Amino acid sequence: MIESLMKYEFLQNAFITGLLIGLIAPILGVFIVVRKQALIADALSHITLGGIAFSLLLGKFWSSFSTLNPVYGGMVFSVTGSLLIEKLRSVYKHYEELAIPIIMSFGIGLSVIFISMADGFTTDLFGYLFGSVSAVSRVDLLIVLGISMMVIVTIFFLYKGLFLLSFDEEHGRTMGLPSKTINFIFIVTVALVIAISMRIVGILLVSSLMTLPVASSIRIAKSFKQMIFLSVLFGEIAVIGGLISAYYLDLAPGGTIVVIAAFILLLVILYKNVQYKFQSGR
């Protein structure tokens, strides 16, 4: 495996990209889970799928679009979807949770239409759905690197505001925090991360990498910062283990990454149950 990693550029691209996504996805996932918006990743992943399908459709009918990286189309649709979610949250002030299933349903509808117009699934689209080690190019890696740096800078400078707004948005507003601006930056950042994660994890599974490591860390973390650290740790373990398994077993990396993340969650739950029984003397 190490020899192949040193020899083949596509494996280097896949592993570096995977490590970066394993870092930024769980970090954002912590804030998403605390905000009780875990389904937002699913909604944006489905609207991203519509963007990917639309880009592939354009490439089929117009040769000038065939060389365009579908990632860009996915990013445009994902960001647009995130802005629509924020707008709908303000429209349905007392039913803000409606914004997510509305956009999810719209994204699924668009995806089905574009895929049917393109005469069904293609090999390229299958790779976007479930991830592909060989599909990660150097350009994809550079895009992921750039957005990863943006995520880290955003979290660093907006950490206090995000922390307060995630736990109590109303209290944050009374303290004078620019909640609309912070929420706008955060949701756009989430949208971009979802769009760039599809090469490795796949569009339909990227939400799992944002939530499963967080679900594991919540059970054992003793502070918010520790929850972030453990989420990243579990995310990286899942990504590394998933990519290695996908390489040797010739499987889609998205599936192996998610299965390992779910297995980690199972181990954490079992550990906590055993610990509780031991402490209670049962």
UniProtKB/TrEMBL annotation:
<dbReference type="GO" id="GO:0043190">
    <property type="term" value="C:ATP-binding cassette (ABC) transporter complex"/>
</dbReference>
<feature type="transmembrane region" description="Helical">
    <location>
        <begin position="14"/>
        <end position="34"/>
    </location>
</feature>
<comment type="similarity">
    <text>Belongs to the ABC-3 integral membrane protein family.</text>
</comment>
<keyword id="KW-1133">Transmembrane helix</keyword>
<dbReference type="GO" id="GO:0010043">
    <property type="term" value="P:response to zinc ion"/>
</dbReference>
<feature type="transmembrane region" description="Helical">
    <location>
        <begin position="182"/>
        <end position="206"/>
    </location>
</feature>
<feature type="transmembrane region" description="Helical">
    <location>
        <begin position="255"/>
        <end position="274"/>
    </location>
</feature>
<keyword id="KW-0472">Membrane</keyword>
<feature type="transmembrane region" description="Helical">
    <location>
        <begin position="227"/>
        <end position="249"/>
    </location>
</feature>
<feature type="transmembrane region" description="Helical">
    <location>
        <begin position="139"/>
        <end position="162"/>
    </location>
</feature>
<keyword id="KW-0813">Transport</keyword>
<keyword id="KW-0812">Transmembrane</keyword>
<dbReference type="GO" id="GO:0055085">
    <property type="term" value="P:transmembrane transport"/>
</dbReference>
<protein>
    <submittedName>
        <fullName>Metal ABC transporter permease</fullName>
    </submittedName>
</protein>
<feature type="transmembrane region" description="Helical">
    <location>
        <begin position="98"/>
        <end position="118"/>
    </location>
</feature>
<dbReference type="InterPro" id="IPR001626">
    <property type="entry name" value="ABC_TroCD"/>
</dbReference>
<dbReference type="Pfam" id="PF00950">
    <property type="entry name" value="ABC-3"/>
</dbReference>
<feature type="transmembrane region" description="Helical">
    <location>
        <begin position="46"/>
        <end position="65"/>
    </location>
</feature>
<dbReference type="InterPro" id="IPR037294">
    <property type="entry name" value="ABC_BtuC-like"/>
</dbReference>
